[in-house]
Specification:
This protein is α/β, with parallel strands linked by helices. Helix content is 27%, strand content 23%. It is built from eleven helices and 19 strands. The chain binds pyridoxal-5'-phosphate. Pyridoxal-5'-phosphate (PLP) binds next to α9.
Length: 369
């Protein structure tokens, strides 16, 4: 019987071999002397920071960026025991949101490297962790984190003597738009601020998109996130490999007569008689409610539109065009037929939000470890 009641309702396959290939691809693009980090914040964009960090480490990645202290703990625990005894082989774990969420002594004990995003952060770190490693962030256009470029000067350079500055970094606002003049402007402002500091530091500037803007943007360390996970970091055809296969089970098939309504709000009415499938994925699984009206899935390779509103735990799809469908079959949500960026476009959002919304209910399988 095809409708195996014991089978999982939805499956999320994470192709770690593709993550590894994506990281190696990016590293190969880099200007001589530049290192390639891995951004694994938000549980590696929802895919599993433990597994992703290990896969990256095994390819040679030694720089890991997270947003929160707690995420750093998870990455450090995942990588424990993987290094050789050589100090150079130990991973560095950077905390983008700064030395917050735990006492400075905990950061130090764990050897976490905070990104210092303000003058207050710098004073705090100099006081509580004198001479200890940190990254200094200079804002060049986000107005979110980082020192104002006007603050870069001799006074700041003096303060930084109390800190082991591993990198001075900035962050691009429009890196995925190759023709956006903001990119060159941010690069120029970064260089200008560095000059005002009057001495040389190692530098970090590019996220995924920034790597594709060319070697001028690479400096000493690049920080790709989305590209590792198969999201297109460019405005050209996607050079990255897909990393996710997401499927959900058809739990019921129904013959719906013309005139019947479908789902909450009776917001959709069948014009003609239809065959519908109830698919076990909903907005609680990150199948966003905004996919109402515009989403589709693939059943036996056939594109099937979502009918009616996306529910918390299920959607209804039109399978009239798939005569061979049976209850128990899987519908593909992300995979060979449509990418994470395709689903994001249907939902009116970006691939990042699709991945980080996936949630805990899927049966996750890590492939290629
Ligand atoms: C999230 C983040 C990145 C990674 O960006 P992608 O666009 O996913 O490559 C790099 N740097 C900073 C500061 C970030 O916050």
């Amino acid at each position: 019987m095809s409708n195996d009641y014991a089978a999982p309702l939805s499956t999320l396959d994470v192709h770690l071999d593709a993550v590894a290939r994506n990281w190696l691809y990016l590293r190969k693009m880099l200007a001589a002397g530049a290192d390639c980090a891995g951004v694994v914040k938000a549980d590696a964009y929802g895919l599993g920071a433990v597994q992703v960090s290990r896969a990256l480490f095994d390819q040679g990645c030694r720089h890991f960026f997270v947003a929160h202290y707690g995420e750093a703990l998870a990455v450090a625990a995942a990588l424990e025991g993987r290094s050789t005894t050589a100090t150079a082989d130990l991973p560095s774990v950077y905390v983008l949101n700064g030395p917050r969420g735990a006492p400075a002594r905990d950061f130090l004990q764990q050897r976490f490297i905070p990104v210092l995003n303000s003058m207050d952060d710098i004073d705090y770190w100099a006081q509580h962790a004198p001479g200890q490693p940190a990254v200094v962030h200079i804002d060049t256009g986000m107005n979110r984190f980082g020192l104002d470029p006007a603050q870069a000067g001799e006074a700041l350079a003096q303060k930084l003597k109390a800190i082991d500055v591993r990198y001075v970094m900035s962050h691009l606002a429009c890196a995925d738009e190759s023709n956006n003049e903001m990119n060159a402007r941010q690069l120029a402002d970064f260089r200008c601020a560095l000059q005002a500091l009057g001495r040389t530091y190692r530098l970090s500037f590019a996220n995924s998109g920034g790597i594709f803007l060319g070697p001028d943007y690479h400096f000493d360390l690049v920080r790709p996130g989305c590209a590792l996970y198969g999201i297109n970091p460019t405005d050209r055809p996607n050079p990255m490999r897909g990393v996710v296969t997401l499927r959900a089970r058809i739990t019921q098939l129904r013959d719906v007569p013309a005139g019947a309504t479908l789902g909450y709000g009776a917001a959709c009415r069948a014009v003609n008689a239809l065959k519908c499938a109830t698919v076990s994925v909903g907005y609680a699984d990150g199948y966003l409610r905004s996919l109402t009206g515009g989403g589709h899935v693939f059943v036996h390779g056939v594109k099937c539109p979502v009918l009616g509103r996306v529910s918390m735990d299920s959607i209804i799809v039109d399978v009239t065009a798939v005569p061979q469908v049976s209850a128990g079959d899987m519908a593909e949500i992300i995979g060979e037929n449509q990418t994470v960026d395709d689903v994001a476009a249907q939902a009116g959002t970006i691939g990042y939000e699709i991945l980080t919304s996936l949630g805990p209910r899927y049966k996750r399988t890590y492939i290629g470890t």
